[in-house]
Amino acid sequence: MNKELIGQLWEWRYELNKIGLVGEDRISLGNLAYFIDRLSKEKEQEIMQNKIRLLMGNKDRVSVAYYIATFIGNNAEKEGIGDCLDFRLEKIHGYYWKDTLNHFDILLDDFDFPDWFHEIEYSIPADFHEIKKDIMHRLKGLEIYQEFSSNREILGFLNSLETHNRWDVFSDIYETITKDEPKVNTYLFFLTAVFSMYYAITKKNNWKAIERELIKEYKKCHIGFEKGEFPAIEFTKHFPRNTKV
Predict the structure, then answer these.
(1) Residue 125: which of 2, 38, 9, 223 has the closest Cα?
(2) How far is CA 156 from CA 48, 150, 244, in A?
(3) Do 117 and 98 form a contact (C-beta atoms < 8 A)?
(4) Which residues, at least 6 apart from 186, have a Cβ–Cβ distance to it below 8 Å?
(5) What is the Cβ-side half-sphere exposure of residue 49, based on CA atoms within 13 angstroms?
(6) What is the mean pLDDT of each run of 10 residues along the chain (245 residues)?
(7) How far is CA 24 from CA 31, 100, 105, 122, 220, in A?
(8) Are 182 and 142 in contact (CB under 8 A)?
(9) Phi first, then psi: what are they for 65, rounded to 5°?
(10) What are the φ and ψ backbone dihedral angles of 233, each rounded to 5 degrees?
């Protein structure tokens, strides 16, 4: 599984949703995955990405959709894939000249998408609020939600991921939740990941006393986990209330 490209899929999905592009169905995401996959092989990838982000920053949805659609179309033509591709591109061009283009995801079908996309067994929420809501819902379903002393542990961690654009970690969370033994693996994932986040804060601020308490808390949880228990994760109680993560 190509975790780097899956992480990019999460990020592009999130950013494009801000300007109303990319549907929630597999075909829409698959076309976006194809775009990301082929873009990653371009020598001028960074220049092209910057151009698209500039258009997104200007809320120019039509130009963004057209840029991505023509990129997909040109690559598909070179590779000889895409049913009725000429007809589909003609429709794209028509919408663009009428200034009504608001999509790019009608060009390719399921069998044209990259292999790594087919390995994704979950849907990707459209925005950060939905992501947080969905993760919390899944944790409750695993009966693991109550293992955290409060929402602060989970939400602080998720907010930090969004702030630092760690979309690769979001993909890891969903991969963990949806695989075998999800309760065990998800508890261990959050225990380790949340500990790492707060441990980095203690190092950054040179908080020696808090660092020692944090390590004790982590070891206590891990020992309980090894015994088949799911001890409450209570890292935030050792930090000043307004600590930024």
Answers:
(1) 9
(2) 33, 10, 9
(3) no
(4) 139, 142, 144, 173, 176, 177
(5) 15
(6) 84 87 82 94 90 88 92 93 89 91 84 91 77 82 59 78 84 82 84 90 92 93 88 84 75
(7) 12, 20, 11, 12, 41
(8) yes
(9) -60, -40
(10) -95, 115
Distance of alpha carbon 176 from alpha carbon 9, whole angstroms: 17
Write out the DSSP string of the chain.
Answer: --HHHHHHHHHHHHHHHTTT---SSHHHHHHHHHHHHHHTT-TTHHHHHHHHHHHHHTT-HHHHHHHHHHHHHHHHHHHT--TTHHHHHHHHHHHHHTT-----TTS--GGGS-HHHHT--S---SSHHHHHHHHHHHHHHTT-GGGBSSHHHHHHHHHHHHHTT-HHHHHHHHHHHTSSSHHHHHHHHHHHHHHHHHHHHHHHHT-HHHHHHHHHHHHHHHHHHHTT----B--GGGS-TT---
pTM as predicted: 0.77
Would you state the structure tokens that stand for residue 162, as one six-digit string?
A: 């969004």
- Going 14 to 18 to 22 to 26, the CA torsion angle's sign is positive
